[in-house]
Amino acid sequence: MFRVVRPGGWVQFLEMVPEHVGETGRPNTDKLIALMQAVGKARNIYLGCAYNLPKMLADAGFVDIQQEWRTQKIGKSVEEDSAQKENMMELFRGMKTPVLKAGGFGMVSSEAEYDALLEGMDREWEEMPATDHDVAAIWARKPSGTI
């Protein structure tokens, strides 16, 4: 990334904090989070970058690094929740093929079972009270005079 940003240019990230299995109290959501973590581990994808992105940017050579923590409400009766919910649904829909190709990680055994988890998560999000979810906004500048 550092290589393709022009000198003096900025990068910005908006990273959701990944929930941990069992923290949501919603069984379908918890199982999909567990599957996301399994895919991440199997593919060596780092899911906790919201916490470490400032250091990663500094290590890459960026300066003027800033991070702000915000909360985003999700759940029942939150008007702006529809986009967040759809983003999460699309994330988990997109994971279906990798999960099934990997044999389901011992958590699901068929496309129908995975689809049932998605439908269950949809219901859980419709029924849960409005809940705060942590989001990190991180931005940094590539120093002028660098290549």
Poorly predicted runs are none
Give the H and E element order.
EHHEHHE
Helix content: 40-55%
- What gyration radius follows from the Cα positions, in whole Å? 18 Å
The count of helical stretches stands at 4
Strand count: 3
Shape: globular
For the record, the count of structural domains works out to: 1
| Biggest sheet layout | 3 strands, antiparallel
Structural class: alpha+beta
**Strand numbers in spatial order across the main sheet:** 1-3-2
Average pLDDT over all residues? 89
Strand content: 15-25%
What's the structural blueprint in terms of helices and strands?
Layout: E1 10-16, H1 27-42, H2 49-60, E2 63-74, H3 81-101, H4 111-127, E3 131-141
Brief summary:
This protein is an alpha+beta fold. The protein has helices at residues 27-42, 49-60, 81-101, 111-127; strands at 10-16, 63-74, 131-141.
Descriptive account of the structure:
The protein has one domain. It has helices at residues 27-42, 49-60, 81-101, 111-127, and strands at 10-16, 63-74, 131-141. Helix 1 (27-42) crosses helix 3 (81-101), helix 1 packs across helix 4 (111-127) and helix 3 runs antiparallel to helix 4 (111-127). It has four helices and three strands. It is globular, with a radius of gyration of 18 Å. Helices cover 45% and strands 20% of the residues. With 147 residues, it is an alpha+beta fold. The protein has a three-stranded antiparallel sheet with strand order 1-3-2, with helices on both faces.
